[in-house]
Amino acid sequence: MPSPELISSRSPRVAAAKRLARRNFRGKERRFIAEGPQAVREAVEHRSGGEATLTELFTTVEAAERYADIVAAARQAGARVHYADDEVLAEVSQTVTPQGLVGVCRFLDSPFEEILKARPKLVAVLAHVRDPGNAGTVLRCADAAGADAVVLTDASVDLYNPKSVRASVGSLFHLPVAVGVPVEQAVQGLRDAGVRILAADGAGSDDLDAELDAGTMGGPTAWIFGNEAWGLPEETRALADAVVRVPIHGKAESLNLATAAAVCLYASARAQRAPAGCRSVTSA
Q1: What pairing do the DSSP bridges indicate for beta strands 101-106 and 54-59?
Q2: Do 178 and 120 meet the contact criterion of CB atoms below 8 Å apart?
Q3: Whole-number pLDDT of residue 184
Q4: Which residues neighbour 47 within 8 Å (Cβ) at sequence distance 6 or greater?
């Protein structure tokens, strides 16, 4: 069997994929890059608006042999598969050491209104989150905790930043994510849907342990998470029903954003799954 023909670095397809490293081109083309076998496998299985999310796949011959099931599934889903050498893959990739598979994907964010119609019980709202790695990690935590959706406000980082996509480790393809929503609109929409709004802040007046002991966290809840360095501004904290701190029982100065988000989301998930847990937002 002859070796597959390798795509040239001068190909327009390679140039188009390379442009997706820049946010303005991602927005214009409504495409983003997903790298590595885990992300590409999730992209192959995902559909948005009735269309396959993965549109193109760049792969080395070696990776195509190692991940033959992924490449076959990509073809079956209608994606164009391009074989490339290591040099071309490095041009398309956004990492220092590519893993042999680089996918081009359609945008997959959901309208905020659709998230509200689904009557969510647990939501992570990322307000003023500027670090793409943190945004992707919080999305992964929300997925692991069984959250129904994630909302990125208009003051937060681009969901499709390559670092965000990598840090989500495939969770980007698992749950609805709304982007560009003003924080006031996010809070009001969720509150109107019967969701309690909690702001996570190290200086919060309410203690997470006390909230759990009081049995106040079993209902639909949205957590607002703020900037990595300076937390949530006062005007955002004022929108919440309560400002909650994660207790520090040891000598650590604080928790980083992703760790605090994981603690808060899992606390809500546990409370909602308790025998007297999450009540329907339509119940009295």
Answers
A1: antiparallel
A2: no
A3: 96
A4: 53
